[in-house]
Amino acid sequence: MDHGFLFQYKLLSEAKKLCLDCQNKANSFVEVDRNFNQGSLRFANFGNNSIKLPAIKLSNFDGQYQNWLEFKDGFKALVDDNFTLNNTQRFYYLRSALSKEASIIIKSLEATAAENYSVVCSLLEKRVENKALMIHNHLKSIFEYPKMQNESYKELRNLYDAYKKHLRSLESLGENINSWDTLIIYLLTMKFDDVTRRDWESYQYVASLPSMEDTHKF
To answer: Which PANTHER family does the protein's record reference (predicted)?
Structure first.
């Protein structure tokens, strides 16, 4: 057999084998790249589905004027002033904390959360931050708080805490509550059940008018 022919045949075979190896490697790279991209996509989707905002315990705001300042102060401290959050995250925290009448404000503002955060805050303030109405509703809550049904430390504590909360809010609205003790104590003790009122009457100082500090000690 012609040695030249054998040499050419071997050269052609080696070249064919080399091409085949290259093709196989190319195919394997394509497959790896495809799998990598699919895996990255799955990972990204998984990541997006599993992202959770940090748990922050917020009070709920239902649109009632007398609840606005307490909610506003708490939300500002925990969310609005939290530099680790962006406006999109702040928007979703705010949305989750609103209910009833207050939640209606953001129903049409879902598309661009980051831009809408400041809009919602402004709308809430314009809708709810009415000083005269807030004072009116705090006073109404004080006057209309339900009377204690039975002698109960828990009911007494809830009554006292509710009065203190409304008084703090009234003070923050500019009301001078320092001279209100006599009126507030009268309203407060009218909410006592019969047994608690008797105990209060035997406890209070005979020689002087009681103060809110006395109700706290009681």
So the answer is: PROTEIN CBG08539 (PTHR22954:SF3), RETROVIRAL PROTEASE-RELATED (PTHR22954)
